[in-house]
Amino acid sequence: MYLSLAIGYLHQAQPSPEMATTGAEGRFKFTASKAKFGDQYTVVAAMAAKLGAGWVNIPPSGKRDDLTIQLVEDDVPITGQIVDLEGKPTPGATVQVLQINAAPREDLGPWLEAVKDKKKLTLETEQLHLPRFTIALTPKLTTGVEGRFRLTGIGRNRLVKVQLDGPTIASQQFSILTRAGKTIEVQDSVRLLGDKEYPESNTVTTYYGADFRHPAAPTKPILGVVRDKDTQKPLAGVAVRSYAKTIGSGVFHRVDIVQTTTDAQGRYRLTGLPKGGGYKIAAMPTSEQPYVAINMDVPDSLALDPVTVDFEMKRSVWIEGKLTDKVTGNRLQGTVEYFSLSANPNIGDYPGFEGTFMLDGQSVPTKSDGSYRIVGLPGPGLIAVRCHKEYYQRAPDRDDEFAFKTPQPTSPYYLGFPSNYNAIARIDPAKGIESVKQDVTIDPGWAFTGKVVGQDGKPLAGVRSFNVSAHHWDSEAMAKDEEFAVRGFNPQQPRQVLFIEPAKGLVGKAQPPKEKGGSVTVQMEPGTAIAGRLVDAGGKPRAGVEVEVSFYMKDKTNWQSYYPDRIKTDREGRFRIEALVPDFEYRLVEDTDVQPLGGGLSSGETKQVGDVRIKKAE
Asked: Distances in Å between the alpha carbon of 105 and those of 59, 70, 111, 136?
């Protein structure tokens, strides 16, 4: 049994230690650090001999007892061979698993259909059709004398992301499908860099079948020294990493797959990058070194001759403080990021600086006592803070010195979404000082409690809630007589707090109390319903099709998944969606295609929409 944070797509392996071993009846029990895992989305994963991996996602408020993890068949092992560009075997290369993806029903069919035209974005298609993944299970293999390796324990019809490394070959990440078949190539576009999107490029993502042969390019070494810009003293312990690749008019970031560390004389040798121009590498100081990370271009060279790239790093400013609850004064844990304002006159002294978005992991976590320390530039800038608890107010909802309601002109990255943070603080360290202090408070907003009753005024069981503690449906139904608690509520910009009881078709909305800390009663009423038939372009019914149901809230700027988030048509293509809250707009979604269903219905009303053809979104 293994445990990891559900922190998205990674570019470096994050192996989890073994947490427990199941008993004779498959039961397990283990404890984990509350500070690390208590308020985070986590994944509990399992591996067993002769079976494929299984895992389950647990939201912060989800249950942690009586979990069921289903292992799968493992009858499609991965067998690969690594060769050089001349076709000669490459022994001693390592193949490291980074991530395992699976479809909701362990079926690669929808994904295979989606990539047939080779025009859809690779990552977008994976997230749509293969959304289940774990990063806890990261076995590492070494190729034999014939350059071959064999990987088991993944499970059939899954996607595995791996990294290939070797002393004489270029490091590379690629994907393997645990199914027999030919190699699949999918047209891709340049990935996002922070909030910026670059033009499409003629790049292709390759997906190997379970038995494949991979030609690895040779590596071109990069050598250099990292020094302090002013004193010229060497800097030891600085990480030097691959960073980016320029392709046409765009820049591929997140190619940070090879790394080394400077020695006592500040020297480094980086291997794993292939020959060619357009590469960037980055120098990443340790958390104890007062320098911001910077990047530099790597020139090309003749043949595979080593290239020299030296770094000069200018001393920066320590920004220190603590994170507390605005009301209670209690210390809080979270993460901190630094942004320089575009008007900062000192940016030119730090060429290659790209802020805390520069590479994965540059958000600085607070310590257990809520204190933090992050490095930034002298001059005007911003400290942006996220708290681990979802119910705290966001920066645009606040009305104090940490409120930011609009995008900020930061450089080189544009802080376009203040709503990503719970607080944003202005700072302006003087040039030449070593440190500056900036404490930050997190605003819990209003809090109130309530109970849910039926039409007869009696308590209900089986009620699902939305927007109570976070902007999604709670993973567990409410128990009978269970009181709900709404936190992080802003009466000046109130959010809709909704309840549905799917079995009885009842819905309700919480009306906030007039004063902070009050209590309310939500009386449920019959919801609305929408019925119709899903047909193809020729008017024939589409039977057994699963589509997503989403709705649009007046106090939100985007569509939200409804509950249940998916419905399935019957043998005649018919569908009926019940327990809908009146007044909202609804739609059906299939992959990236949508069909509006309208809204504005009254309690107890059923809207017949007739034949529905899901079309491409405009």
From this structure: 20, 12, 12, 21
| Paired strand residues for 54 | 46
At 103, is the secondary structure helix, strand, or coil? coil
Q: Report d(CA 396, CA 614) in Å as an integer.
A: 36
Give the Cα separation of 225 and 197 in Å (integer): 33
- At the fourth CATH level, which superfamily is domain 222-313? Carboxypeptidase-like, regulatory domain (2.60.40.1120)
Specify the pTM: 0.72
Domain 318-442 fold is Immunoglobulin-like (2.60.40)
- Say whether 126 sits in a helix, a strand or coil: helix
Could you identify the residue written with the tokens 């399935």?
568
Q: How far is residue 125's CA from residue 115's CA, in Å, rounded to a whole number?
A: 8
In sequence order, the 6+-apart residues with CB closer than 8 A to the CB of 31 are none
With bands split at pLDDT 50, 70 and 90, how would you rate the model's confidence at 194? very low
Q: Where are the domains of the chain?
A: 1-209, 222-313, 318-442, 446-526, 528-616
318-442 and 446-526 share one CATH topology? yes
The kind and range of the H/E element at 382 are strand 381-387
**DSSP letters along 314-373, please?**
-B-EEEEEEEEETTT--B--EEEEEEEETT-TTGGGSTTB-GGGSSTT-SEEP-TTSEEE
CA–CA gap between residue 386 and residue 374 (Å, rounded):
14
The arithmetic mean of pLDDT across residues 379-394, rounded, is 89
User: What pLDDT digit, counting tens, does each position of 588-609 carry?
Assistant: 988 768 889 988 888 999 999 9
Domain 528-616: CATH superfamily is Carboxypeptidase-like, regulatory domain (2.60.40.1120)
Q: How many CB atoms lie within 10 A of CB 607?
A: 17
Residues 6+ apart with CB under 8 A from 329: none
Strands 371-376 and 464-466 turn out to be: unpaired
Encode 319-344: b = buried (16+ Cβ within 10 Å), e = exposed: bebbbbbbeeeeebbbbbbbbbbeeb
Instruction: Give the tens place of pLDDT for each residue, 146-169.
Output: 999 999 999 999 999 999 999 889
Task: Write the DSSP string, 207-268.
Answer: EE-SEEEEEEPBB--EEEEEEETTT--B-TT-EEEEEEEEETTEEE------EEE--TTSEE
Beta bridge partners of 382: 339, 426
Please say whether the beta carbons of 133 and 102 come within 8 A: yes
The 3-class SS string of 222-236 reads EEEEEEECCCCCECC
Alpha-carbon distance 438 to 383, whole Å? 9
Burial of 127 (0-12, 13-18, 19+ CB in 10 A): middle
Compute the distance between CA of residue 158 and CA of residue 103 in angstroms, rounded to an integer: 7
Question: How far is 359 from 243, CA to CA, in rounded Å?
Answer: 8
The reply to whether CATH 2.60.40.1120 applies to domain 446-526 is yes
How far, in Å, CA of 135 to CA of 534, rounded? Answer: 37
**Residue 419 is encoded by which pair of tokens?**
């709503």
**pLDDT, tens digit, for every residue of 340-358?**
999 999 999 999 997 765 5
